[in-house]
Predict the structure.
Amino acid sequence: MRIAIAQINASLADFESNKNKILDFAHKALERHCDMVIFPEAALFGYHPFDLLEISEMVEAQNRFLKDIEKSAPKGIGLLFGAITQTKLKHGRPYYNSAVFVERGKKSRFFHKELLPTGDVFDEARFIETGRIADNVFKFNGQKILVTICEDIWAWDDKNGRSQYPANPLKAVAKKEKGIDLVLNLSASPYYPGKEKVRDDLVRKTSALFKAPMIYCNMVGAQDEIVFDGQSFAVDPKGRELARLMAFEEDIGVLDLDKMEGMKRTEKVADAEKIRQALVLGIRDFCRKTGLSKVHLGLSGGVDSALVACLAVDALGPSNVKGFALPSKFNASESEELAAKLAKNLGIEMKTVSIQQPYEVLRGVIDPAMGLKDFGLVHENLQARVRGTILMAYSNAANSMLLATSNKSEAAAGYSTLYGDMCGGLMPIGDLTKKQVYTLCDLYNREHELIPQRILTRAPSAELRPNQKDQDSLPEYDVLDRAVDRLVVEAKLGSSRDEQWLLGAVLRSEFKRWQAPPILKVSKHSFGRGRRFPIAQKASSVLVKSK
Amino acid sequence: MRIAIAQINASLADFESNKNKILDFAHKALERHCDMVIFPEAALFGYHPFDLLEISEMVEAQNRFLKDIEKSAPKGIGLLFGAITQTKLKHGRPYYNSAVFVERGKKSRFFHKELLPTGDVFDEARFIETGRIADNVFKFNGQKILVTICEDIWAWDDKNGRSQYPANPLKAVAKKEKGIDLVLNLSASPYYPGKEKVRDDLVRKTSALFKAPMIYCNMVGAQDEIVFDGQSFAVDPKGRELARLMAFEEDIGVLDLDKMEGMKRTEKVADAEKIRQALVLGIRDFCRKTGLSKVHLGLSGGVDSALVACLAVDALGPSNVKGFALPSKFNASESEELAAKLAKNLGIEMKTVSIQQPYEVLRGVIDPAMGLKDFGLVHENLQARVRGTILMAYSNAANSMLLATSNKSEAAAGYSTLYGDMCGGLMPIGDLTKKQVYTLCDLYNREHELIPQRILTRAPSAELRPNQKDQDSLPEYDVLDRAVDRLVVEAKLGSSRDEQWLLGAVLRSEFKRWQAPPILKVSKHSFGRGRRFPIAQKASSVLVKSK
């Protein structure tokens, strides 16, 4: 039996497009003499549906396209793809997260996901009911096949012998069903560096349990904050890799189960490059799936905006990216020059708009009204908000989306101005520490100096008051970054002065992040909707020891 | 046996304060000759913990205060209160949502919640493991008592014979356990109009099932977007009400089980007045629990800002509320006069700051930079953002929180400027339709004209261009409001022109609400964290029929 792995980029609720992709890849699979083609989780609906499922017409609409597929699927090949289906239960939640097996002219078969993720960015227990993978075994072409969906293979014990699930449902299936010939997993699994190894481990354990080859088909593409990386693969029960597909691109691969061999793309790519690809795809898909073609951003002459500009150009092309230099008297003249040089290197337009006059006029109105005399935080934030206002004006003027340029280290420390530099429709590098920002910049400069080197060597500064440096207000970035990884990614508290400082800062600044734009998630745990912290809480009173 | 119902206002992670309240109310109960006192769900931890639970030190810290209670609880009375406890399971999530029964000098007993809500604002399946209420029966003073926590009594069929849960765990207990003398429920149940009836129904059904009296003890107080209303009560198995506590205030009531009688506060209060009280408590607790004492807002001379000002004065007192009139040349002079009159009536300070000059200067910078000639949407948004910038400056200048004044009808239609009138630390009336805004204003004017009548009679206008009226851009408010209730609260689509228009508008404007401040929830389904809609989706392509 030959099986095609169709790693498609499905769009949420874009059923027409998803249906066409499924049929298109089914034809490609048939051309490759395959008996079956498998697609990712929720390939027809798009993933993650979130609360679109509260509108009952959504799944009814999807079902019309499901019927279309049943009617127009190519003959001679079985299609297995993810979809949301109605439970029709009187007692239970309304939907299953299902895999549908379609063969032209036959009654479709349905298999339901058992383990429903609710951690981090996931919310499946809101509208999805629990299935039973023990019911997901079927025969095709004389082969006994077990169908699992994403989380279904995530209940293996970790190295400490722990799991967040009371039981591993795979073990129950292994006890009940003998002679499984093939295990399939349809996934929509978001990317973070090192995720490949985690998945490999789960798939190898599962394959070994059933003593059967296993195919893992992952979604590719981005949905708001979440980026799916593809990298679908297959293994034999000895853990030998039989097939591997591309990262961050649609792809199709074929696995010949009789010969036990498949197509393997084996290019080794470093994590930093994968993060870069994830962010590029995240920007591109957010624009494409919201119907926008153009973006713009403030170019400060600093490293964060430089990186966002590079990513945006990779995502949308230089003609769809526009930079604005927005100097005040506090900006070194070098800042605008560096921004202009960067824009030139990238081939994007840049416009300079001085904020000095509007800033002064606003200050002239605000200071007397509020009894302010000395320059202070008010005026720093004011500059950031004048910039935000000008940049947002361009959104209306040119139907272009503003990209926010904050990074994760700043977001953690609350070192940003709400409605100022936090403005934007998307915050592409909001999940990168400052160190990662430099690493990705270095990547862009590997072949030639795309980002003016001086941008990478000058001391980071918000340039909101004379001679300001980030390190006047923040710990050294290498220290801060490590503290951010420990606290935000691992949720581990530390006792060092800098870690305690960061803990207080994170807890105090939840109100800002509550109102942040969507952040492209490229770590194990990012800010954004996958991290739900309350604002009105006194956690600092028990957690922060030294003040 | 005499039981005290202690309806306290717990604060999230403020263990010291929560512990003191628990001990304080235990003493009050003892003074009232009670044998037992019961508190709300998570009374020690505060509710809803959300992702505070990802930090393992949180519950460890809570446990130190739990030990304090065990050591210093008054003798001669049993205390039953909610807390988060560690499961210590190798396989399963790390915590239970528990009720702890403390008797001085005895080993404490623990009872765990079985049904974990994941819908709307709730997220319990992230860190909480499923308990078994069948294990929650204990003997005290010769009485056999069943302990349930909030959602545990919510699996009764609705009038269509449906439930979102596969089974009602109460029925399993009723089968297994005979002779239950008393059923307790510890809740943290958020308010919406009509919720009382829903709870009454669940409690009466449960009481009847066990043929035993039942006490329902609900949290009071607000946590970010969620307002708990208290209104704890008790019934006998025939459905007769035995006790009822205050709405929106801490309270203690006593139930004598031998005499089958209790304290009843029976004042009938209309829904509109309860919504008003909910919003006042929401503002007050948000400020108190974040350590802020002062708020300010823009007073437009319109009905929304007038209502928010009234609510803020009720919450914090007139000396802690400040208004700003921020006129441009598009504002009728009447607007500022009405704002001033309102401020005078409320006894709050008002300051007028014209935005005309900064607006013109910004326009003078923006128009040439972006090739704009004619007045347009850019300039409307610009005015709103200049206002937002000035109001946010006051936040820094006076350590005061800006209140956003958008209502639910505007939020649904996307009729608001991101980073403009959406600015603020809290959006108090973001869950009120325009009609409800008027109803609450009428309430404030019942005794005398607190809100100048003309504010209530003039046509609503954003006053961002000459002779603008809301109804130039929006359906009539009564039509819009009904459509909002159907679509947003009930998730029901309609086919009328206005309903179709609203559906498109809601789907298009998700990107704005993603970045909205916390919204006080006073309906069955509000915008905010309890409604998780994706931005990048094509739902309109299948849902919106007429364009």
About this structure: The CA atoms of residues 328 and 357 of chain B lie 9 Å apart.
